[in-house]
Design brief:
With 483 residues, this protein is an alpha/beta fold. The chain is 42% helix and 16% strand. Helix 6 links the parallel strand 2 and strand 3.
Length: 483
């Protein structure tokens, strides 16, 4: 009996990581037939978003056959057994060269495998593809790729956000249930918000950077992107080093936080947190969900966001230019113009400026930790606007005009600057029916408690279940997002 005869196709296409892994484990769905379904969809639809740089059909099917054989033999199965995933092109993946979507490495992609990918495979995940990205992760639009721009599944005329735009697009479009991204100033959360999915940046150092091509080592983090916080929990747990007891502890933290009814949530406010009116309305409506659960919403005034943004830039510029200096010496003309300009700018950051920025960072992190004390999480809009058009390089909102790059990164960079875990969740739609995201920032080492809070939010809403075209096709009305 075929997959279409046993399940409505839309159910399989919308199924998340936990659902698919359970079906495969029970023998109700074969890993090979799931892989074939996903590969057929990729072949038919992926060009619409340009989400992938490499699709490994033969390798994916070989992994899937091994997964079915392991189940048949009664071998131990991991939590992601048979689940197809994609990996961003700056994360080394065995059998698939990695070039960070750059012409610099196009003729000699880097080989090897990052430990985080090896752990995902040991958990049973099947690597299907490498995803498109802004070259070297140095951009928030995903327009700057050697393979061409990635397009938003909700509207192909709009950006996905970057730099993990390909990972966000393939999940949002239902091509794969889980993808890996990296985040230096919002590069997981920006495209998650713009494409209407969920994504988490773990705290600094939680996922080691070995095998991940860096942008700025002070801020870099790798994390999962999926439709739901529950799937993020499974993906992140598989990415982290640790034992079975560690996984059990993560599961307990997730479930305990998910079941909590009364929370203290800090609402970040002040200069630097302004949004476009439609984003503000969607965000305010989302805050009501926390209130309906009995949570206390506590205003938290943050001062110095302009200084945070400037210091984040100075550190990122200097560290990126340091890493790229040898390649720039030999292959400068192979870089995309926008990335090359940023790398040249980083060469002008003095040691004094860099150290002053790091010193300010230390003081700000200490003050921010005091703001977070006594709260379960902090909440803010992920982005001040919905996804801008691909053709635009500047944008106006809240009475000012800025570059799309700066608009996309000014608020998300806060979590990188403080080193705290942060998750972006879909929370509604703007005036043009493009998704809006909210961010929850948690405590150091509190990724799984944070994801539990995020899952509780999603238990009371249906935004994460929306697919491109669905809200518009069903004539979604105000308030229809709350279950």
């Amino acid at each position: 009996m075929s997959i279409a005869e046993r399940f409505p196709i839309e159910d399989i296409d919308r199924a998340g990581v936990a659902q698919l892994a359970a079906l495969i484990r029970r023998g109700e769905l074969g890993a090979v037939e799931l892989a074939e379904r996903r590969l057929a969809d990729i072949e038919r639809r992926a060009a619409r978003t340009n989400a992938f740089v490499t699709v490994d059909r033969e390798g994916a099917l070989a992994q899937a056959r091994e997964a079915d054989l392991a189940l048949a033999r009664g071998l131990p199965l991991g939590p992601l057994h048979g689940v197809p995933i994609a990996v961003k092109d700056n994360v080394l993946t065995a059998g698939l060269g990695s070039s960070a979507a750059s012409a610099v490495l196009a003729d000699a992609p880097l080989q090897g495998e990052a430990p985080l990918v090896a752990r995902l495979r040991r958990a049973g995940a099947i690597v299907v593809a490498k995803t498109n990205m802004h070259e070297w992760a140095y951009g928030a639009t995903n327009k700057g790729s050697h393979h061409g721009a990635t397009r938003n599944p909700w509207d192909p005329r709009a950006i996905t956000g970057g730099s993990s735009g390909g990972s966000a697009a393939c999940v949002a479009d239902g091509l794969l249930p889980l993808a890996i991204g990296t985040d230096t100033g919002g590069s997981i959360r920006i495209p998650a918000a713009a494409c209407g999915i969920s994504g988490i940046k773990p705290g600094t150092g939680r996922v080691e950077g070995e095998g991940v091509l860096p942008l700025a080592w002070s801020f870099d983090a790798a994390g999962p992107m999926a439709r739901s916080a529950e799937d993020l929990w499974l993906g992140l747990d598989a990415m982290l080093p640790g034992s079975a007891s560690d996984s059990s502890r993560h599961a307990a933290q997730f479930r305990e936080a998910r079941g909590r009814a009364r929370l203290r949530i800090g609402m970040l406010a002040g200069e630097g947190f302004e949004t476009a009116p439609d984003v503000g309305r969607a965000f305010e409506a989302a805050l009501e969900v926390f209130g309906q659960r009995g949570s206390d919403l506590v205003p938290v005034a943050v001062r110095g966001m302009a200084a945070v943004f400037a210091a984040w830039k100075a550190i990122m510029y200097a560290e990126a230019s340091t890493f790229h200096r040898p390649l720039m010496h030999d292959r400068a003309q192979r870089y995309a113009p926008d990335v090359r300009a940023l790398l040249h700018a980083g060469e002008s950051v003095s040691a004094v400026d860099y150290l002053a920025a790091q010193q300010f960072r230390g003081a700000f992190r200490a003050a921010f930790a005091r703001d977070l004390a006594g709260l379960d999480a902090l909440v803010l809009p992920t982005l001040p606007v919905t996804a801008p058009p691909l053709a635009e390089s500047r944008i106006e909102f809240a009475g000012r005009t800025t570059t799309v790059q700066d608009a996309m990164t000014a608020m998300p960079c806060l979590a990188n600057f403080t080193g705290l875990p942060a998750v972006s969740l879909p929370c509604g739609f703007g005036d043009t029916s493009l998704p809006v995201g909210l961010t929850l920032i948690g405590h150091p080492g509190g990724e799984f408690a944070l994801l539990g809070l995020a899952a509780a939010f999603q238990d009371d809403t249906a935004w994460h279940a929306m697919r491109p075209g669905h809200a518009m096709a069903t004539g979604q009305e105000e308030g229809a997002h709350v279950r």
